[in-house]
Amino acid sequence: MDPLTLKLQAQSAISETENVKKLEELKITYLGKNGLVNQMMKEIINIPSDQKQNFGKKANQVKQEIQLLYEQKLQELSQEGKQQEWFDITMPGKKPTHGHLHLVSQAIEEISDIFAKIGFIRARYPEVEWEYYNFEALNMSKNHPARDEFETLFIDAPVNEKYGKIVLSTHTSSGQVREMLRVGQPPIRMINIAKCYRRQQDITHTIMFHQFEGLVVDKNISIKHLKGTMDYFVKQFYDENRKTRLRPFHFQFTEPSFEVDINCAVCLGKGEINGKKCRTCKQGWLELGGSGMVHPNVLKAGGIDPNKYSGFAFGWGVERVYMMRSDVKIDDIRYLYENDIRFLRQF
Ligand code: PHE
Question: 103-344: which CATH number, 3.30.390.10, 3.40.50.2300, 3.65.10.10, 3.30.930.10?
Fold first, then answer.
């Protein structure tokens, strides 16, 4: 092949090359030991002697030119490669998003820790429960009107002769008699935190919600223990300045029964600030939830002798007590369960 043709051929092949690997192959094809350049050199023997010098000069020139083309291209390609790899090490990295527990789970952990400190053992009982444990065992016989207050959801399942229908437990009190039967003999100090269900949905109610139920049974348990436990809880969960007040109420499964109120964080129970009515509570106190001394019939259902033992119980809404913290502002309880990440992230 004549030097000029070879040079043109090599030139176009090299310029079209897109990567170093192909370029190295071309180097072997042209500049290798048995490559096209050396083959061309060998042709010198067939060249008439008067043209040999000229041919040799040209051939050497072409060899150098191809060598140069190869080197330039190699530099160009490796420059490109470097550009692709280059990155700014001073740029801040992308942080992986950290999830966290749902605020209700956080509240549950906090509540069970507070009660664990005074010896309450966390219990867990079925969400899908027999009517018996939800009502009868709690002194609400079949067709008792008090059942109406618990907007009950029933499961479409065969009715059991002793235990009745299957319901979604309407309160954590359904665990009271189960705990008595499990423990057998007092002392009992249970904290049962669980999902509850009622047929009610509006800005202050969701069909599914959580309650935490305390149950203490032992010798000589009195209202003092109930009151002391309530005060302990609100000081731990809210702040040192909070205290509780018991207001007479009625539940079938406690006697006497109380509604527990907490003094308002803004006016601290006075109901007024500088002679003006407190806008947060209006009368100094806010309602937390129900409580009372365990009814003798409930103790009996749990196999405990009411002449020897007495107890107290309380059952409050987790969402409710959590939302009563002054740093929590949630105007519609349903937000809690819509799983909107923009809402949940705040807590
Ligand atoms: N179970 C009651 C309710 O859901 C609350 C309660 C629990 C009252 C324990 C007294 C004792 O309304």
Answer: 3.30.930.10
